[in-house]
Amino acid sequence: RVLVLGWLVGLPVPFMIIWAPSWGWVIAANALLGINQGLAWSMTVIMKVDLVGPKSRGLAVGLNEFAGYLAVGVTAFLTGYLASRYGLRPVPIYLGIGYAVIGAVLSIVLIRDTRDHLRLEASAHGQQSVPIGFREVFALTSFRDRNLFAASQAGLVNNLNDGMSWGIFPLFFASFGLGVERIGILKAIYPATWGILQIVTGPLSDRWGRKGLIVAGMWIQAGGLFLTAATSRFEWWLVGSLLLGLGTAMVYPSLIAAVSDASHPSWRARSLSVYRFWRDLGYAIGALSAGLIADRFGLSWAITSIAALTFLSGAIVAIAMQETAKR
User: Which of 94, 132, 140, 240 is spaced 20 to 30 A from 174 at the CA atom?
Assistant: First the structure.
């Protein structure tokens, strides 16, 4: 039901963008898109984790994120191409109409609820869970449990650098004279790499463990950001985007799987919701903080500052997190 509700909320978004007579309509459409993401994408993650059980969480999350972010990469490329040919509105937004309709129809017609799978896992967990309220789950996930804290702060910083990249990278590349189509290629390479490789990194986290992939992934992201800020050629920016995609692919499914590992089935969905609160808050913090830094010190400084913060976040995981995967 929550999944279906998310898609119904998302249906008006592309039409609002196409017909927007003022900036306020664009803001409202983004708010609805945020609600759609919060409900629909969260449910796809939680339902897959319910379906597969404790030993294949990395695989389940990797498949989910693979599908989603591959679509982000393909859409970034297609919309960049369509925008360069036909303008920003309305042609590129037609893709959004198709996505919204297909997502709603599939959710209503094909998807079944996973509550019975969750009950079965909880009964076989082998450890009685004392009922706890959302306030306690929020505290555990945010700071009281060392594994959940490490995952939450890494998720926030991961999406912080992603939010920075969507806001700052196009301006940074354009400042060197790069055209819209080549900027679209750079912005497509990052999520496409991220999406495709998660089908590998998710299962690897089930075999190798979560912690090593998270730490290495954060540091590889930092390297990609430093490389982007320090260079001024398309070829180096392409390498930086590939590194950013590789590092994110290592981190993204591993973090969700680590949170699932550290949470009891009876409150796992709430823990994942708190983790996603902190993680996706990074988008807003990244965009705003990078914009402020860029206005004050320049675009390169904004990218470099976020790169340093990403490296620091990986170090926190290396120190605070204990391995969570049950191998």
Answer: 94
Asked, as a colleague might, if the bond just before 21 is cis with ω within 30 of 0, I would say no
Q: Got the DSSP string for 104-126?
A: HHHHHHT----HHHHHHHHHTSS
Domains in the chain with CATH codes:
2-320 (1.20.1250.20)
- For 62-76, the pLDDT digits (tens) are 898 888 877 877 888
For residue 88, the 8-state DSSP code is: S
**How far apart are the C-alpha atoms of 327 and 325, rounded to whole Å?**
6
Distances from the Cα of 325 to the Cαs of 17, 44, 168, 206, in angstroms? 43, 21, 36, 6
Place of tokens 């994120």: 65
State whether the Cα torsion 251-232-83-30 is positive or negative.
positive
The amino acid at 122: A
pTM (predicted TM-score)? 0.84
Closest CA relative to residue 64, chosen from 54, 49, 75, 80: 49
**pLDDT tens, 94-103?**
999 999 999 9
Helices and strands in the chain: count of H runs, count of E runs: 14, 0
pLDDT in tens, 243-287: 999 999 999 999 999 999 999 888 999 999 999 999 989 999 999
Name the CA dihedral angle for 318, 321, 324, 327, rounded to a multiple of 10 degrees: 30
d(CA 32, CA 34) in angstroms, rounded, equals 5
What's the rounded Cα separation, in Å, for the pair 55 and 158?
Answer: 25
Q: Which residues contact 29 (CB under 8 A, 6 or more apart)?
A: 12, 13, 16, 17, 20
